[in-house]
Amino acid sequence: MDPSALSARPVLVLDFGAQYVQLIARRVRERHAFARIVRHDITAERVRELNPLAIILSGGPKSVYEPGAPQCDPGLFHLGVPVLGICYGMQLAVQALGGKVEAPPAREFGRTDCHVLDPAEPLFHDVPRDTVVWMSHGDQILDAGADFLPLAATSTCPIAAAKHRTMPFYGLQFHPEVSHTPYGSLILGNFLDRICANPRSWTMEAFIERAVEQVGRQVGPDQRVVCGLSGGVDSAVCAALLARALGPRVVCVFVDTGLLRGGERADVENVFRSHSEAELRVIDASTQFLKALEGVTDPQEKRLRIGHTFIDVFREEARSIPGAHFLAQGTLYPDVIESGGEPDGPTATIKIHHNVGGLPAELGFELIEPLRDLFKDEVRRLGLELGLPDSLVWRHPFPGPGLAVRCLGEVTAPRLEVLRQADAIFLDELRQAGLERQIAQAFAVLLPVQSVGVMGDARTYENVIAIRAVETEDFMTADWSRLPHEVLARSSTRIINSVKGVNRVVYDVTSKPPGTIEWE
Ligand SMILES: Nc1ncnc2c1ncn2[C@@H]1O[C@H](COP(=O)(O)OP(=O)(O)OP(=O)(O)O)[C@@H](O)[C@H]1O
Ligand SMILES: O=c1[nH]c(=O)c2[nH+]cn([C@@H]3O[C@H](COP(=O)(O)O)[C@@H](O)[C@H]3O)c2[nH]1
Ligand SMILES: NC(=O)CC[C@H](N)C(=O)O
Ligand SMILES: [Mg+2]
């Protein structure tokens, strides 16, 4: 299925390496326009094919005049599509269109007072003339040339915003996407609504309609869909959408990988049967997964093998489902971006998500991934819209590769058991402290190192468990939770006292970035 077929005309966000490029995409979506992040060197020809509503050029760490600084196809400026350049993006466009960019003596970082020059300018509609913006730049536009009209200024940056006099190009030296620019979201909204005539069609109701129609068209009346169901919110929402489109032609398959948490299998069965009438098959493939992981310690290799084993299991099961040509998965936008290698997507591979980069070349199925364009918070809103219970919609995510990517080093049954016990205790402590909803995801990790301890007057040399709790909405960025010390203390004591083979517990205080949520 064409991944963008379900979506409205996109706002393409060209990624020049900005730390929070996803934030731009999310802000655009909050304004009911469909944002897609693409590589900075996407060709003007490809952009024309994608028929975008607008183009946004992101910020970036380089200086536009440096050799090797990332460029964009200059043809973009002549497509007649409105372009908004943010920081690096503005500097790049102004340089490409005849202006001059340099590093002035004073750099600007953080909150800055900004003066809007013309209150009638649509980009600044309803924005106070004197406002605060968030700056983060060492370079700025020294001379925009005769073709640009300055729109705003700060005390050291005379061209804090500008527009081209004849082409639909707008530039902002400051960052409208961060919450420290109080009117930033409004400015982005003005760009979309007043300059791009945004039809505001990116809503979850409209999404459901389009998705149901698209899936109904794709799957013939005698064909059936195998839907990988994990108990997580993504696959539950995916299954609910498919059930709406196809009724009993959806068969949900839950795979017990042997990499699940304690009690997970029974939980998933209970929850699913209580809210869905679709068929559910539960398959125990734990031996197969453990065998595939034997001797493997490299994180990417683990993910690849897990992705392949999932497909083997789905294929085997599909043999007993007549007309099962399709495999549906609850793949989300972050899974796709982080796996890298998407045709138009940004290039860096962070990790191979088992359900994207981990798939074998010969799948044997046509994939259906109706959530492939959505962020997690959007999937949750979709779930609520589809009538799924709160308890399911707000479940913490659990990755398909499961405990395998939290069992650092080799994955063996005894090591998994140590991890499973420690994880259950930590989650139980969080539940008892009433912290579950405020935390986005929490888990234990078994490290491949041993440390010295003393227990009952005797020396020990045993495993280390790391515990991790993070807060985030979209799982693209995250901060570690400031858990109360008592909760950490109780978790640590209980884990060491009751899990055999563990003598030390540490708490992970790394945000994302620079860390990722999982350790592998
Ligand atoms: N144990 C499993 N059995 C069958 N399919 C699975 C299993 N684990 C993962 N999948 C498939 O892989 C997809 C991606 O997994 P992922 O963990 O990202 O999503 P999820 O489990 O649906 O939601 P969440 O992110 O909330 O855990 C799932 O939507 C599902 O289709
Ligand atoms: O189904 C999945 N297959 C995977 O291969 C995978 N890797 C990470 N995750 C989950 O994605 C979110 C972001 O995780 P990271 O910050 O570790 O990339 C977190 O919620 C992770 O648990 C995965 N889910
Ligand atoms: N945040 C940015 O985009 C910075 C752009 C450029 N590197 C500068 O310092 O001005
Ligand atoms: Mg999951």
Automatic annotation (TrEMBL):
Keywords: ATP-binding, Glutamine amidotransferase, GMP biosynthesis, Ligase, Nucleotide-binding, Purine biosynthesis. The keyword Nucleotide-binding applies. Its EC number is 6.3.5.2. Pathway: Purine metabolism; GMP biosynthesis; GMP from XMP (L-Gln route): step 1/1. The active site is at 87 (nucleophile), 175, 177. Residues 202-395 form the GMPS ATP-PPase domain. The keyword Ligase applies. Transmembrane segments: none annotated. It catalyses: XMP + L-glutamine + ATP + H2O = GMP + L-glutamate + AMP + diphosphate + 2 H(+). One of its GO terms (molecular function) is ATP binding. ATP binds at residues 230-236. GO terms for cellular component: cytosol. InterPro entries: Class_I_gatase-like, GATASE, GMP_synth_C, GMP_synth_GATase, GMP_synthase, GMPS_ATP_PPase_dom, NAD/GMP_synthase, Rossmann-like_a/b/a_fold. HAMAP family: GMP_synthase (MF_00344). Homodimer. Catalyzes the synthesis of GMP from XMP. This is GMP synthase [glutamine-hydrolyzing].
